[in-house]
Design brief:
By secondary structure, this protein is an alpha/beta fold. It contains 9 helices and 13 strands. Helix content is about 30%, strand content about 20%. Its main location: secreted.
Length: about 325
């Protein structure tokens, strides 16, 4: 497990919990200040300060990350991690790192909306290798992420029922394995266009048992020439935007592939994309699905549904 754990040392957290306000100490209570004072900034410029102003409890460290380290409880307890709010884990795909999408876009969508912990897993040490090597290592890294979440639970009491794992491409299979390591007890697993090459018949690919609710968004179906994603159902609920093969405004497979995380981030913000239940892949292809409606994506931790769904989107945000 040295490989996965070394990679997990690079996991960073963007925590949206409010900055704690300390209770005045005995020492501070001895000092009587007037309500309005002047206080200098870093350049020595004086500013008017109201000491009785209402604290901004929505202040968030959405830009500066904190590193959470496996088997280092202090790295967690000394951070702003709040076990009482949802924890979102985001995992990138091949040839990527914590600074590349989907990480910034999905992270911002969550932190702009609600009070959550966002943990970004940087597995670039392996993801930057050739595709075959990276794909082969996905299950072990996924199990390592699961072990880290088990450690997080033991240190803070953060419930698995309050965790949502989001992965893109190879990262979709990675979060599936992370959820599997925890016996499928995490609330949600979102597989964003799970990678197709080497995964169509791979027993380690994301599956419906990896979480209480597992959802997949297919945007670049693997049954077309050059398709980067799996074109078949792999989850409890599988969504096929625009048929799941090509996306409006896209001329390349890469654009189609990336549209999965773009659509997901938009649904976290807007919760506006609705699919219709399909009874066959032929209905998905011919856009003749007429079943019950079901919302794609979003941030609902108690969401649950089954089946295949087709929906049509616009070519530009919010789609």
């Amino acid at each position: 497990m040295k490989g996965p754990l070394a990679i997990l040392l690079l996991a960073t957290a963007y925590l949206a919990s409010a900055v704690p306000v300390e209770t005045p100490t005995e020492y501070s209570l001895k000092h009587d200040y007037p309500r309005f004072i002047k206080f200098p900034d870093g350049e020595g410029k004086m500013h008017d300060v109201d000491l009785e102003a209402e604290p901004d409890m929505k202040l968030r460290n959405t830009i500066v990350s904190q590193t959470l380290t496996m088997n280092n409880a202090a790295s967690i307890t000394s951070s702003n991690f709040n076990a009482n709010v949802p924890t979102i884990v985001i995992v990138h795909g091949w040839l990527s790192n914590r600074y590349t999408d989907p990480n910034p876009t999905v992270r911002k969508a969550y932190l702009d909306k609600s009070d959550v912990n966002v943990i970004v897993v940087d597995w670039s040490r392996l993801a930057l290798s050739d595709y075959a090597t990276a794909a082969l290592g996905v299950p072990a890294v996924g199990r390592g992420v699961g072990e880290f979440l088990r450690f997080l639970n033991s240190v803070t009491g953060a419930a698995y029922s309050n965790m949502h794992l989001v992965g893109f491409s190879l990262g979709a299979h990675l979060v599936g394995n992370a959820g599997r390591e925890l016996g499928g007890s995490v609330a949600r697993v979102s597989a964003l266009d799970p990678a197709g090459p080497m995964w169509n018949y791979n027993s380690n690919r994301v599956n419906p048992n990896d979480g209480v609710y597992v959802e997949a968004i297919h945007t670049d179906g693997g049954y077309t020439v050059g398709g980067l994603g799996i074109g078949s159902a792999v989850a409890n609920a599988d969504f096929f935007p625009n048929g799941g093969i090509s996306q409006p405004g896209c001329l390349t497979n890469l654009c189609n592939h990336n549209r999965a995380w773009e659509l997901f981030a938009s649904t976290v913000t807007n919760n506006h994309l609705v699919g219709q239940l399909c009874t066959s892949t032929l209905q998905i292809t011919w856009n003749t699905c007429r079943g019950t409606s079901f919302r794609m994506g979003n941030d609902d931790l108690r969401k649950f549904g089954t089946g295949m769904y087709r929906l049509d989107t616009d070519r530009r945000y919010p789609y």
